[in-house]
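Input record (one chain):
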Amino acid sequence: MSVEDLKTNYRRLQVDFDLWYGESDAEPYVEPLLARLRERNLLRESEGALVVDVEEEGDKAPMPPVIVKKKRQFQHIRHHRPGDHSAAGTRLCPGGDLVRGG
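The corresponding structure, as predicted from the sequence alone:
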């Protein structure tokens, strides 16, 4: 889906945004984010991908790790739920913080 398609759909819903960013706009933040996660010992390798464990004590259901970087190329951060092969995006904030999304 293109940005123009998204704008058309949101216009129909009478929703507008001041800024529109695409996946490639996050590219400059990837390496600094990886460095911060490494420094904090939050990043680990799993099946060739770099992941961050986000499960917290008190979670009512198992929470799988967030995939930060796939084996060969960066993809925007994705969170996979057990049994769900689609991805619900977890946002990457400009400061490099992760925000859990559903």
